[in-house]
Design a protein that fits this description.
This protein is an alpha/beta fold. The chain has a single domain, classed as 3-Layer(aba) Sandwich (Rossmann fold). The chain contains 14 helices and eight strands.
Length: 336
């Protein structure tokens, strides 16, 4: 059986990964899986919504995958994954990687993880050469674990966003799976959000930054500035065709339902959607919060092409000219 191509979106939360994943899921041969590291708890145990809108247990596609995982213990796998991928284990993980050892020590659960990706490929990806599973789990240790599993052909897309923007986004009160959900997404304070941004993006560079043909870095700001061109670049990175892109206009994408697991609730958006940069943070983030995040992440800002000073917010006229009217859906901020 051919290895399963997995495009792993690595980096920190609120960096646009849900938007990128959903757009890629519109391409022929791409399956937008969402944050698969959460499948065991949020999907199999909590039965949270699939990207298609159905509860996971009611989704025909995931029912077929579940049938291939009957010997797995979802609760146990979820708990053990959390323990194996803890932040405090990151230094040891990087040392093992430098020595040429598997970054995350093996465990019997890895058989079920490998089977998960093989099952998804079997039920969703066409042709003998297969397609691409897009996994937006982001956490670098989970990506390192995936790369060591048998049957996984891993490509890493490092999605980066200005840390001041991610810190602001984390502070928004946002239901986990849409307006009807009474459970909120986590809301770390800006200092913690900044440190997580620094740690996860630095770890992503350390793990994969030197692997040119299997590592691509893309900023959220560049993706929303040219979504069609950026999507074509990502598709070419994994060796896929760039002929059928879902963009009726350069900045408007046509979204159909995906079967993503977890992620930003924007994964449920469908129809014609304007890809518009979310710049609310430029005026909404307080001076103190901006200073705190900049001080904590300053060592890495220039590496990723971000200024120390707060950029000027776009004028009203510029925002209006950048937001073309779409007949079937209004313009919306896009982030992940």
């Amino acid at each position: 059986m051919s290895p399963v191509r997995v495009l792993y979106l690595a980096g920190s939360g609120r960096s646009g990964s849900t938007l990128v994943t959903t757009v890629l899921g519109q391409l022929p041969g791409f399956f937008a899986a969402g944050e698969l590291r959460y499948l065991w708890r949020r999907g199999l145990l909590e039965n949270r919504p699939c990207g298609c809108g159905s509860a996971l247990a009611d989704c025909p596609l995931w029912a077929r995958v579940r049938a291939d995982l009957t010997e797995a213990d979802p609760a146990g796998i979820a708990a053990r994954l959390a323990a194996r991928l803890r932040l405090r284990g990151l230094p040891a993980l990087l040392r093992r990687q430098r020595r040429g050892q598997p970054p995350v020590p093996g465990h019997p659960d890895d058989t079920h993880l490998a089977r998960l990706y093989a099952s998804i490929a079997e039920h969703t990806l066409p042709g003998p050469s297969g397609g691409v599973i897009v996994d937006s789990s982001k956490l670098p240790p989970y990506g390192a674990l995936l790369g060591s599993l048998p049957g996984i052909d891993l490509y890493v897309l490092h999605v980066v966003r200005d840390p001041r923007a991610t810190a602001y986004s984390w502070r928004r009160r946002r239901p986990l799976d849409g307006r009807a959900d009474d459970q909120l997404m986590s809301r770390p304070p800006v200092g913690k959000a900044a440190l997580l941004w620094l740690v996860w993006n630095t770890a992503t560079l350390r793990l994969w930054g030197g692997r040119g043909e299997r590592y691509l870095r893309m900023r959220y700001e560049d993706f929303v500035a040219d979504p069609a061109g950026s999507t074509a670049r990502i598709a070419g990175f994994v060796g896929a065709s760039t002929e059928e892109l879902p963009f009726p206009t350069p900045a408007t994408v046509r979204l159909t339902p995906t079967h993503s697991v977890a992620g930003n609730p924007s994964r449920h958006r469908t129809g014609l959607v304007d890809v518009v940069a979310d710049t609310e943070w430029l005026t909404g983030l307080s001076t103190r919060a901006y200073a705190v995040v900049t001080a904590l992440t300053g060592v890495a800002l220039s590496r990723f092409g971000y200024p120390l000073r707060r950029p000027a917010a776009p004028s009203l006229a510029a925002r209006l000219s950048a937001d073309p009217v779409v007949s079937s859906s209004p313009a919306t901020r896009q982030e992940g």
